[in-house]
Amino acid sequence: GGIIITAPLSIKKIFLSPAGGSFTTDGYFLLAPKHIIDYLNLIIFLAPLPVMTLLFIYMRSNKEVSGGLKAALWFILTGAFIGAMAAFIIEPKLGMARDWDLFSTMLIPAQLAGACLWLNYFENHERFQPATIMIVIMLLSIFIPWLALNNSEKGLYRYALDIMKQDPKHGRTGLYTMIPYQEENGNQIEADRLKRYCALSYPEMEMVRQSEKMLFEGDLDQGIKLADEAIAENPGFFRGYQLKAKFQLNMGRYEQALENFKIADALNPYNSDNNYFTGVVYQRLGDTVSALKYFRRGMSYDALNPFPAIEVADYFSARAQLDSARFYFRSFSDTVKIFPPNLYYKFGLRGLIYGDTSRAIQFFDRYLKAGNNPELMEEVSKIKGRLIH
Fold it and tell me: Which CATH number fits the domain that encloses residue 246?
């Protein structure tokens, strides 16, 4: 039988699956050839000294390590082994080509171990000094070009783009981030080129957009099928699971929705919307304590998200704790953009329930500017008029 790891999915997702699984992105798992090649490349690029030293020891050296140094050397070698194993089993979420700098810290003990082995085995060798100089030159030949590249904005941009395109499934977030970067720097042609590339390379994004539209329009059966297609296209993309869970929530399939929200949270922790909707599911299931926990967590992850704050305010309002309700009602900015606009009207009514007239008027004003329902706008104007006078 296999080994069952008892841990939250968010913890399990830190590590690569040994032989692939339902959340494996683009066939990238622990024993996949592409991961093994990535790992060997990382070792050669960042910690070549221990590799060379061990090879020389195996081929030529018969020198014994002194007893006084043995314990210290074993300590360093143990640290090197642990670091090297960590770099092997932890998943490079943005692709090894981009995450190499993160994994490089895990290989510092390996490089130290290589230096210690080199000194302890070869310091008395007749060619130790010239060989050491050659090693230093070789290491500098790797380091200096990289240092120069990092001091060239254009060169670094081209490099980042190239490595993300080598592993597009893992590089999706980075490529999308480059679009507003280019727009902010006035390079609209490059931004448009990136948009075209992303549209072709990431069909799951368009699937999610279309599925979200169907959710808004109430086409639940077709929308959830499209969410499933987005998941099949990219099993590591959290929004597919989050969207499927929203459909299941609207269909009354609360347990299934909860499972998919938990998957989305494991794939993308600290997401305010995900925690808010998880709270809604628990609320529908009658678990008020868990619902409140997730609403508060959603607030802590995004201070501009008004929805979890409103739910917490409702919780206290229902228990006649209006001071607490008003506190949470005022915990998010009154300039936050909300869609659809009729929510401004609903938030204004909430303010009246909580006894916060001034903030209620602010939301009524927001609705009068953004609303598109003449009858409701007239009603809001009357409510506001009565409050002012």
Answer: 1.25.40.10
Within 95-127, residue ranges assigned H as helices are 96-104, 108-122
The reply to whether 102 falls in a domain is yes
Q: In whole angstroms, what is the distance from residue 302 CA to residue 308 CA?
A: 10
Give the mean pLDDT of the chain: 87
Q: Give the pLDDT confidence of 12-50 residue by residue, as tens digits.
A: 668 888 876 666 666 788 888 888 998 998 888 888 888
365: burial class by Cβ within 10 Å (0-12, 13-18, 19+)? Answer: middle
Model-level pTM greater than 0.85? no
pLDDT confidence of 56, banded at 50, 70, 90?
A: confident
Does residue 313 fall inside a structural domain?
no
Helix (H) or strand (E) segment spanning residue 199 = helix 188-201
Residue 320 placed within a domain: no
Structure tokens at 25: 């992105």
Give residue 231's domain range: 203-269
Q: Is 15 helix (H, G, I), strand (E, B) or coil?
A: strand
Phi and psi for 138 in degrees, rounded to 5? -65, -45
Q: What is the DSSP letter of 266?
A: H
Q: 354-379 pLDDT, tens per residue?
A: 999 999 999 999 999 998 899 999 99
Question: Is 221 found in the same domain as 104?
Answer: no
Residues 250 and 133 placed together within one structural domain of the fold: no
Q: Looking at 9-81, which runs of residues are DSSP E strands? A: none
CA atoms within 13 A on the CB side of 226: 21
Structure tokens at 125: 């060798």
Cα 173 to Cα 160: distance, rounded to the nearest angstrom = 12
Amino acid at 53: T
Angle between helices 238-250 and 203-217 (to 10 degrees): 20
Q: Which residues on adjacent β-strands are paired with residue 15?
A: 90
List Cβ neighbours of 283 (8 Å cut-off, separation of 6 or more).
Answer: 291, 311
